[in-house]
Amino acid sequence: MATGQISRRLRLVAADLAGENAEVLRESEVEEASAATEEEVFGMEMLWMKRIIDFF
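-> structure tokens emitted (56 positions)
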């Protein structure tokens, strides 16, 4: 196999891995944002419940 072919294959593999890494990072960011939103909603629900309890 010629050096040029090896180099080209290495570049293709590196590009593929970079794409996969970027996809995993995007998925991770989405999951983190979702978890943060859930925590915020939970906190708001707890605050609302406390206000209701304090009212009575």
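The mean pLDDT is 87.
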